[in-house]
Design brief:
Bound molecules: guanosine-5'-monophosphate
GO molecular function: catalytic activity
Structural class: alpha+beta
Strand content: 15-25%
Largest sheet: 5 strands, antiparallel
Number of helices: 2
Order of helices and strands: HEEEHEE
CATH architecture: 2-Layer Sandwich
Organism: Mucilaginibacter limnophilus
CATH topology: HIT family, subunit A
CATH superfamily: HIT-like
Protein name: HIT family protein
Radius of gyration: 13 Å
Amino acid sequence: MPTIFSKIVSGELPAYVVAESNDYLAFLDINPLAQGHVLVIPKIEVDYIFDVEDDVYAGLWLFAKIVAKGLGKAVPCTRVGIAVIGIEVPHTHIHLIPLNSVQDINF
Ligand code: 5GP
């Protein structure tokens, strides 16, 4: 059974894609914690981030870094916060959250 994120990768479900490479995808979170909240995923479906193969893991973080730099310029913010939670969707992902202060997020 593919995850919601695999369905986004395949185009079965819509998403607002902000960046894409052969192996990774970045798209807006459907329920953002702040304006411009982005999720960065490997296209390959692996539930737990620490089970991801080393090369995919390294590539994911490098891709997230590139997306974060662009995001920081595109959205007014002091910095782009980064988080790994992975409770709701069993498909490895990194949250990028543009922030101006801690009040921006409401965990
Ligand atoms: P986590 O798994 O890290 O706890 O959170 C999963 C994140 O995925 C949440 O921030 C949630 O809003 C987001 N999300 C869940 N379903 C969808 C969806 O169908 N589309 C998009 N763009 N984001 C989703």
